[in-house]
Design goal:
- The protein has 253 residues and is an all-alpha fold.
- It is built from 14 helices and no strands.
- Helix 1 packs antiparallel against helix 2, helix 2 crosses helix 3 and helix 3 packs across helix 14.
- The longest helix has 28 residues.
- The radius of gyration is 25 Å and the shape is elongated.
Length: 253
């Protein structure tokens, strides 16, 4: 992901002030060689400052948020296979982090020879055993549908996904029981490192947008999507900053 540096304008203004002071001293000393060098440096500074001001103007509120938060810390980690990542996402749905982690560890404990059950092993597991690990009936059906579709080749590998568009990946994976658009978008951002994903249904992103615009109500997904067009082609980065904005509201509550 690109690293967006905060306070791009301030250092350029400081540099310009220093150059103007040097220019005054060179004039007083009659130092023509230094005058030429400083004037060239001032011209270069003016060009860079103008560019930075244009970028800041285009970013608007987002630019000010970036300056306040600092460099983007968004990272992606391919790590596990899409099958494993989606399986964990199913287990974690609608649960607190601690409770979900406990249930997920119990599920994996059913398969001591693997960090996560292979599709045939999961398909062969009795529903009673899954429920004993804390997996609800609906999540057990979703996990087995994921396993069956992975076994049938419906779930592509990361290598295959690298050749697919975001929209094609979403369309392919939401056909799996229990996998919605938001789950696939998180996979795109954090496992595939796709830079231009804006999860418009994400509560944190919507809350961050409301905070950024100092409004009490959350934007509709459609409104957020339309506004977010200006953040292309780095809407994943914009999402990260909106999550930070939402966190600042929570911490200040």
């Amino acid at each position: 992901y690109p690293r967006i540096s905060p306070g791009e304008i301030a250092p350029l203004v400081t540099e310009r002030t220093r150059l103007e002071q040097e220019l005054t001293s060179a004039r007083e000393a009659g130092d023509d060689a230094s005058l030429e060098r400083i004037n060239l440096a001032l011209a270069d500074n003016s060009n860079r400052l103008e560019g930075a001001q244009k970028r800041q103007s285009l970013l608007g509120r987002m630019g000010r948020l970036i300056a306040r938060v600092g460099p983007c810390g968004l990272r992606y980690a391919p790590g596990r296979s899409p099958y494993e990542a989606l399986g964990e996402a199913i287990v974690y749905q609608q649960l607190s982090g601690k409770a979900a982690a406990t249930i997920f560890s119990r599920l994996c404990a059913l398969y001591p020879l693997a960090s996560f059950p292979e599709p045939p092993a999961l398909l062969a597991t009795p529903d009673e055993a899954l429920r004993g690990a804390g997996i609800s009936a609906s999540k057990a059906r979703a996990l087995k549908d994921l396993a069956a579709k992975t076994d049938a080749g419906h779930v592509p590998s990361y290598r295959t996904m690298a050749r697919m568009s975001d929209a094609a990946i979403v369309e392919r994976l939401v056909a799996i029981r229990g996998i919605g658009r938001w789950t696939v978008e998180m996979l795109l951002i954090f496992n595939l490192g796709r830079p231009d994903v804006l999860p418009v249904h994400d509560y944190g992103v919507r809350k961050g947008f409301a905070a950024l615009h100092k409004r009490g109500e959350l934007p509709t997904p459609r409104e957020l999507g339309e506004y977010g067009e200006r953040w292309r082609p780095f809407r994943s980065v914009a999402s990260w900053y909106l999550w930070r904005a939402a966190e600042s509201v929570t911490q200040g509550a």
